[in-house]
Design brief:
The protein is α+β, with helices and mostly antiparallel strands. The chain is about 40% helix and about 25% strand.
């Protein structure tokens, strides 16, 4: 199961390098694409939950690091919850 990292740019132009234990994140996010904040959060939740379940299927336990990453994404996103038209850009996969 290939580990993936993806970089996102937040509405304030800061960037975060995010972790996924599976390449399934590529089914939910695309490099260079802008996502409305709520859409990005929903896609991240689904992708990281699916990635964590793939780990569970293979190793018998969920991936806590994927859930920690989701918590970090949600924490950062909360800063922009009241911003009108807040968007997140997926910069790249690496």
């Amino acid at each position: 199961m290939p580990v993936m990292h993806f970089r996102v740019r937040w509405p304030d132009a800061s960037e975060t390098r995010c972790y996924s234990p599976s390449s399934v994140v590529q089914d939910f996010l695309a490099p260079g694409r802008r996502y409305a904040l709520d859409d990005f959060l929903q896609r991240s939740r689904e992708a990281l939950a699916m990635a964590s379940e793939r780990v569970r299927a293979k190793y018998g336990f969920a991936c806590s690091q994927a859930m920690d990453q989701l918590a970090e994404i949600e924490h950062i996103a909360a800063r922009f919850a009241d911003a009108a038209n807040a968007e997140v850009i997926v910069v790249a996969f690496d």
